[in-house]
Amino acid sequence: MTSRMSQGQLIAGIGAVVLLVAMFLPWIGVSGPSVPAGITLPSGVDTSITDNIWKGPTLDVYLLITVIVAALPVLLALTDSSEEFSFVSAATFLLGAVAVILIAAWLTVDFPDGADRKYGAFIGLVAAIAIAYGGFRAMQEEVAGEI
Question: pLDDT tens, position by position, for the chain (147 residues)?
Fold first, then answer.
């Protein structure tokens, strides 16, 4: 089953799964209003708010498309319906590279003022890098197979 997948496709597929999981993790955190003096909160009450990428910018739609394209060769190989799709590796690399740029820009330039960057955003960035690298590696393997 996995013998039909190249190493690059496998890296991109694992990156796609990690990115999909990371999209449900907290990406942004905002501290809530401070509690007035003299008021005590019950134990376990937190005034901070965390959110994942689904409730934020439209970056979620692009990342979902990237996950689907990166996972496509793996899904086709697992179902033994894999055909030669030379454009999929190039599309995976291109979408992964753009995802890295978009996430990095969102973390630096577009990030909301007063908010905290949470671990989900950094896991998503690493997963996007893995998708781009896997797509690049799969392109190299396809070219090496043709020579």
Answer: 455 678 888 999 999 999 999 988 888 776 655 555 566 655 655 555 566 565 656 777 888 888 888 888 777 777 766 555 567 888 889 999 999 998 998 888 877 777 788 888 899 999 999 999 999 998 888 777 665
Compute and round to an integer the Cα radius of gyration of the chain. Answer: 19
Contact 11, 133 (CB under 8 A): yes
Compute the distance between CA of residue 4 and CA of residue 9 in angstroms, rounded to an integer.
Answer: 10
